[in-house]
From TrEMBL, chain A:
Top-level division of the source organism's lineage: Bacteria
Name by which UniProt lists this protein: ATPase
Residues annotated as domain ArsA/GET3 Anion-transporting ATPase-like: 14-170
Pfam families reported for this sequence: ArsA_ATPase (PF02374)
Length: 330, 378
């Protein structure tokens, strides 16, 4: 697709996880746009029924049907919301020729039952659909239908269990056919084509979860991708100013002179109030730097995803995608 | 302050009222539920209540600030609180709570049989909804013990705020469901045969997909479990009624962001549909502006003038910083006002974002003060 050397060349399934509230859906969407930018066809998938993708692209709610949601350069992004019930019906149809059983299954609440009785079974159905999209070819031996698949995955606290499908079902369903299905999913998830990216904020809890999650996935032998630091604000002040301000010291006189030169009224009072904002900002930056230092322990490439002050929309997503490409991620 | 004309959530009155016995903090993931729950409980304790806070998965340093070093499912006294009240805190251990509940309701032999069952092991550690159900179970236990006059609970991190209300019922319905009863019946004979071919087809498919061994595990589990719990559904409904009871108050926590407020909005509607007592909304971590008279447009124009002249770089940078803060606050206010217009009856209180993480009681106290309305930051 590209002559440039990117960090995740070769990856076809990008799993995006992160603590709740870190903005992983936004980052997954930006990543999908970035991957499509050079002419690729990319599928963006959500699996928790949250309908988080549709509003970002300004399209109606997604269904169990792949639909184009955005053009990106010469490429395009399609999106899909995978639902365990639909996936079970499709699975029974494809693998067992049991489509007619679907009605009865629904009537007796058997889908809930199957997915509840073996919690891993639900995950296998969801990852099974994703794996199918990754492997799908236009014709036998032909090219892949999707150049890349981006999965807006469950949060960090559940990601290991979600992806470790074999363990999920082997404990319970030791002999059923879902077990065989899991083995196929395992092959895709553990292949060199799959990487798991972590979205975090520069705050204590998200960073901790990110580090824990990375260690957990490594222990399972899964490929950890990059760390995507979300909601990064541009550095406005010089380091020396920040260090002093974090200690409560701001050159209020210099600030007042500047405000006066800019023609603002009551420069002295204004400078005092604004210096309070500078101190808060500097302490926040200090906390963020500590968080960033802790992230270094993961020894993974980090990418910055800028805070969109005005909220997330399609134009903003394109800016984030461009920035991910500029940072050499994809 | 009355944000955007919405009624104010009077946290002090809520915490001081001896009739308030349970406060449930709910909201979507990452909005600061746990911190809010801890700050509410501390404030209540320091205003004279004997409070206990049940937390689920607290940040390490927050846990340390509460003196919690291990997850042992027992409320521990939090040292260093002021005043005549007291504060206890505990971290929920879901599996342990489930095990204790079984042990308390079954004789030793039956309990051992349940613990050994592979299906129970999966159910108690990974069933979607067990954590929510066990948070409720623990809440019920603490309420019945009557050792505290106020219980503050933090709800489990779930994909949506609504899971907290639905999961216990789902678990109850599942354990009481007719499919499970059918599977649990000793022999597939007698009147059950009359249910017809549909159910037979379904169990056939289920057995094929999941394997017959699993179904046998489930059958023996249901056999042992049923005699212990009578109706699990009934139990789930009991805990649900506890939430509707007088003396319970729900506090919905939301970040001033579109997604979190949309979830909060669903949750508020749902609470009202279920006749659950809603105290109000905590708008958490709002952008704080110390020089509110200087608008974003004016600050940005002034910064540009200084940058063009190449003078006073400090003032120019500080004006840019201020511009960003004001824009962010304005955006948050638009979201807040939209929520207030959709829910004019819901009281609201804002807690400004702190520049640093919470790791001691002082920081929790400060959040408590903001919750109590004594922070007038614009």
């Amino acid at each position: 697709m590209s002559s440039r050397d990117r960090d995740w060349d070769g990856a076809r399934l990008h799993v995006v996880t992160g603590k709740g509230g870190t903005g992983k859906t936004t980052v997954a969407a930006a990543l999908a746009l970035a991957l499509a930018a050079e002419g690729g066809r990319v599928l963006l998938v959500e699996v928790e029924g949250r309908q988080g993708i549709a509003p970002l692209f300004g399209v109606p709610p997604l269904s169990y049907e792949e639909r184009r949601v955005a053009a990106a350069g010469r490429g395009e992004v399609r999106a899909l919301s995978v639902d365990a019930e639909e996936a079970l019906v499709e699975y029974l149809d494809l693998f067992h020729g049991l489509r007619r059983a679907a009605g009865a299954l629904r009537r007796f609440g058997a889908v809930d039952f199957v997915t509840a009785i073996a919690p891993g079974a639900r995950d296998v159905l969801l990852t099974g659909k994703v794996s199918e999209a990754v492997r799908r070819r236009s014709r036998p031996g032909g090219p892949h239908v999707y150049d890349a698949v981006v999965l807006d995955a469950p949060p960090t606290g559940r990601i290991a269990r979600f992806l470790d499908v074999t363990a999920a079902v082997s404990g319970l369903a030791r002999v059923g056919t879902v077990r065989d299905h899991a083995d196929q999913v395992r092959e895709v998830v553990h292949s060199a084509e799959t990487v798991v990216h972590f979205v975090t904020l520069l705050e204590e809890m998200p960073v901790q979860e990110c580090l824990d999650g990375i260690a957990e996935l490594r222990a399972l032998g899964l490929n950890v991708g990059g760390v995507l630091v979300n909601k990064v604000r541009p550095a406005l002040l010089e380091d020396s100013v920040l260090t002093a301000a974090a200690g409560g010291v701001v050159d209020v006189d210099a600030l007042a002179r500047g405000l006066q030169a800019a023609g603002l009224p009551e420069p002295d009072g204004l400078a005092r109030r604004l210096s309070g904002e500078v101190v808060e900002h500097a302490r926040h930056v200090r906390m963020e730097r500590e968080a960033r230092e802790r992230l270094a322990a993961a020894a993974r490439p980090c990418y910055d995803v800028a805070l969109l002050e005005e909220g997330v929309d399609l134009a903003g997503l394109h800016r984030l995608a461009e920035s991910l490409r500029a940072q050499g991620a994809v | 302050m009355s944000p955007g004309g919405a009624p104010v959530l009077d946290v002090n009155a809520l915490l001081d009222d001896p009739a308030t016995r349970i406060v449930v903090c709910c909201g979507s993931g990452g909005v600061g539920k746990t911190t809010t729950a801890a700050a509410l409980a501390l404030r209540a304790a320091e205003r004279g209540r004997h409070a206990v806070v049940i937390t689920v998965d607290p940040a390490r340093r927050l846990a340390q600030s509460l003196g919690l070093t291990e997850l042992d499912n027992t409320p521990r006294r939090v040292p260093g609180t002021e005043g005549d009240g007291s504060l206890h805190a505990m971290m929920l251990d879901m599996k342990r709570t489930f095990d204790e509940t079984v042990a308390a309701n079954a004789d030793a032999e039956k309990a051992a049989q349940i613990f050994d069952n592979p299906f129970y092991q999966a159910l108690s550690s990974s069933f979607a909804g067990t954590q929510e159900y066990m948070a409720m179970e623990k809440l019920g236990q603490l309420r019945r013990s009557d050792e505290w006059d106020l219980i503050v609970v933090d709800t489990p991190p779930s994909r949506s705020a609504l899971d907290f209300l639905d999961a216990p019922k789902r678990l109850g319905r599942f354990l009481d469901g007719r499919l499970l009863r059918f599977l649990g019946s000793p022999a597939r004979s007698g009147p059950l045969r009359l249910i017809g071919a549909g159910l037979g087809l379904v169990t056939g498919v289920v057995a094929r997909v999941l394997g017959a061994q699993l179904l046998r595990d489930v059958q023996s589990f249901v056999g042992a479990f049923d005699s212990v719990f009578g109706g699990f559904q009934e139990r789930a409904e009991q805990t649900y009624r506890l939430l509707q009871a007088e003396g319970t108050a729900f506090v919905v926590v939301a970040a001033p962001e579109q997604d979190a407020l949309r979830e909060a909005s669903y949750f508020v509607d749902r609470l009202s549909a279920e006749r659950m007592p809603l105290a109000g909304l905590v708008l958490n971590r709002t952008q704080h502006v110390l020089a509110p008279d200087l608008s974003a447009a004016r600050a940005s124009a002034a910064a540009e003038a200084l940058e063009t002249a190449g003078e006073h770089p400090l003032a120019a940078a500080v004006l840019r910083l201020h511009t960003g803060r004001v824009r962010r606050r304005d955006r948050e206010r638009r979201l807040r006002d939209r929520f207030a217009a959709e829910h004019p009856e819901v009281g609201m209180v804002e807690v400004p974002a702190r520049p640093e993480d919470v790791h001691d009681l002082d920081a929790l106290r400060e959040i408590g003060r903001a919750l109590g309305g004594s922070d007038s930051a614009g």
